[in-house]
Amino acid sequence: xxxxxxxxxxxxxxxxxxxxxxxxxxxxxxxxxxxxxxxxxxxxxxxxxxxxxxxxxxxxxxxxxxxxxxxxxxxxxxxxxxxxxxxxxxxxxxxxxxxxxxxxxxxxxxxxxxxxxxxxxxxxxxxxxxxxxxxxxxxxxxxxxxxxxxxxxxxxxxxxxxxxxxxxxxxxxxxxxxxxxxxxxxxxxxxxxxxxxxxxxxxxxxxxxxxxxxxxxxxxxxxxxxxxxxxxxxx
Length: 235
Known about the structure:
Layout: H1 2-7, H2 20-32, H3 39-56, H4 58-61, H5 69-76, E1 86-90, H6 96-104, E2 110-115, H7 118-127, E3 133-135, H8 141-147, E4 153-158, H9 167-178, E5 181-192, H10 199-211, E6 214-217, E7 228-234
Helix pairs in contact: 2-3, 5-6
């Protein structure tokens, strides 16, 4: 599939045992097995895992650090969780959005996340052991929904780096998403300011406006690395 082709390209730095990526991996393992695993060690290990995955798959992650609490709050607050019976998260990364969603969503509502990176799946499961995470491509969302006895969902929250995707991959992911997001459903994703200058970022903005009946943009979240904003779209 196109998603597998593009998301597995550009594996990062050379696989030398002296490469920076290798050193980051070793440090992440050291932090992971520190005892006791206090909050500081957990957060440091999480950041190293994020950085290591970025170095290996820059088109998959799109950032060098997890999203900040301010960006998480801006994203999650863009949904009316009392009205949501089923929701999906695309690309949970280390689980910062997943954790916030689980605090907001009603207990009886259905929720799961889709993440292609094995390391990020493990990081999310460590942070959110009660969350249902599928290690898969988001282009397979319709099949996953069918497995969960869902014909459609009310909300999709995305952490994918859209501005890093080529047109064919943007199209494939969006087409797959539209097969499961119900009419009137809400889609939210964030974008980095520097991505607006990229052709793929501009193309993604045009795609949103041509696909959804309503597209809003939040104020800039400056307390994030890098600064970002949130798109809130209604189908």
